[in-house]
Amino acid sequence: MAAEPLPGAQAPAAEGEPLHAVPPLPPAAPDGDDLAAILEDLRERGLHRRMRVVTGPQGSRVVLDGRPVLLLCSNNYLGLADHPRVREAAADAAMRWGAGAGASRLVSGTMTVHRRLEEALAAFKRTEAAVLFGSGYLANLGVVGALARAGQVVFSDELNHASIIDGCRLARADVFVYDHRDVEHLAWGLRKHDGRGGVIVTDSVFSMDGDVAPLEEIVALARRHGLRTVVDEAHGTGCLGPGGRGAVAEAGLDGEVDVVIGTLGKALGAYGAFAACSARMREYLVNSARSLIFSTALPPPAAAGALAALELLVERPAMAATLQANAAWLRDELAREGFEVAGSSTQIVPLVVGDAALAMRMCEEAIQHGVFAQAIRPPTVAPGTSRLRLAVMATHTRDELRQAARTLGRAALRAGFRPGAGLPVAAAQPPGHPDERVPEPL
Ligand SMILES: Cc1ncc(COP(=O)(O)O)c(C=O)c1O
Prior knowledge:
The protein is of the alpha/beta class. It contains 15 helices and 14 strands. The protein has helices at about 35-45, 85-95, 105-110, 110-125, 135-145, 160-170, 185-190, 215-225, 245-250, 280-290, 290-295, 300-315, 320-335, 355-370, 400-415, and strands spanning about 55, 60-65, 65-70, 130-135, 155, 175-180, 200-205, 230, 260-265, 275, 350-355, 370, 375, 385-390. The strands form 3 sheets. A 7-stranded mixed beta sheet has the order 4-10-9-8-7-5-6, sandwiched between helices. Strands 1-2-3-12 form a 4-stranded mixed beta sheet. It has a 3-stranded antiparallel beta sheet with strand order 11-14-13. It is globular and about 55 Å long. Bound molecules: pyridoxal-5'-phosphate.
């Protein structure tokens, strides 16, 4: 039975509710005509997606669908995915331990490389322990699902990542969605639902906006109300804080957050994720996080690649500072072009244009002129807030970033958007379609 919605909050999606911009499927038609109709509808609304293909390794410059471009939308923030030491470590691991782990961690899939990586991650995050997950998506699914149960409440920032939203669904707990970074709204929700138990969960760096959660206040509120905290450092790990240890470390909160999630597929250049926590929490997650229990362990080459990347980061702690200096440089250059970038304080810099089709046009224009910055549209972001999400790398040069800002300025004008105008030049479009609205709390 669906949980009772909270006043001032909403319950997780009920069975059959649309979860994204794709309308519900009609009855199956011969030759997939029902699917064709839905795809056409997405095309008409500027929401159709396709996969672009990169030839060669992931660097700051790539060949995209046959065209050389500056890559400005990769989460390979430190350029470690194609670092020689990371590649060698992954290749050696494949020769030594094989391509796959063959089973879940709790059966026969735990190998020495997993244990070594977990120990290194715990030392890096200054926690007692760490436990690996197959990906950041799986980590959030497993951790949120393990820390909140039916009848309890997940307090979640409205701009948290989709994997946290899905974790809330899996938890079957009630969900109180507080306004983005609004600690007063969170405090109100906590008072309202005091005594119910549950967890507060937030991204540290918000993936589509590049701003940072008010972690100190959140941790203080959690303590006051006897709740646990989960902080998703997918975009903080390797990027912010002393030596790239993340936003939690930057805020001086080492040891104060119950579970810090990090990914291995972004700044650490490989694939997978981890939860850094106390030894007891690790034991609890191993016994309760379904996405850990019921999924094959990380392949040894991914684990070894991430371990080599982590060692590089520890050896060269200034990498994160280089990344943030590059990000500040790009923001300045974009501001010079007239773009509004004040919302971001990190390596993720959104250029919000509003309309989905306009964002696509601007993206295509920029690609034609050698800059790849992916357009992000509903349901990833709210209707009317489509954007180009720029992601800076530590390996970009200042010159590349200056040129990119100029190219993006010109691409915006050609697509019909005047930077800084706040609204598309060719506007007259209502912000999104009402039926795109995600009826979820998050
Ligand atoms: C905030 C956040 N959490 C989790 C994830 C999922 O991580 P992964 O790509 O390892 O599944 C992402 C991915 O983009 C993210 O942005």
